[in-house]
Amino acid sequence: MLNQSFLADPRRASLLLGLASAGVLAAALVFQYGFGYQPCVLCIWQRWPYVGVVVFTLLTLLFRRWPGVGDALLIASGLALLANAGIAGYHVGVEQHWWAGTSGCGVPGPASSLDQLRAQVMAAPIVRCDEIPWSLLGVSMAGYNVLVSLALAAFAFAAARVAYTRSVR
């Protein structure tokens, strides 16, 4: 377990978050380009908060001399990761057919004409959000993303709290 002196410096904690986020993005790209698992719309949405965390990490390192900026960016990273857990949780629900996905996740309702049916088929996404292309121990990639996002968000908030309490002493 990381000690509080490590967490007291927002740059170190942010760097760890940035590296973890870059690692998750790299894994997603390996699955996509290395193994041929094409992402659906919700999979793409889940990548953006990780990009945000990487940007927050770079800003923390860039503005390291400004007091409080690193703490605020750790909180922003935690909020981005919580949002990502929400997106991934929604995706898990779509995969489990607990609720319908977005309009970009599948073919819309029935067509009233042949032209409308043709337009729906041509506009349908290549990858459906409600199909699970890969899972490990019964958990899909979106399910693992919920867990990873929540763990990283907890780390970000804990690091921000420790850094803030150290700075006010």
TrEMBL record:
Its main location: membrane. It comes from the Bacteria. It is found in: Cell membrane. SUPFAM superfamilies: DsbB-like (SSF158442). The chain crosses the membrane at residues 12-35, 47-63, 72-92, 142-164. Keywords: Cell membrane, Membrane, Transmembrane, Transmembrane helix. Gene3D superfamilies: DsbB-like (1.20.1550.10). It is a multi-pass membrane protein. InterPro entries: DiS_bond_form_DsbB/BdbC, DsbB, DsbB-like_sf, Uncharacterised_DsbB. This is Disulfide bond formation protein B.
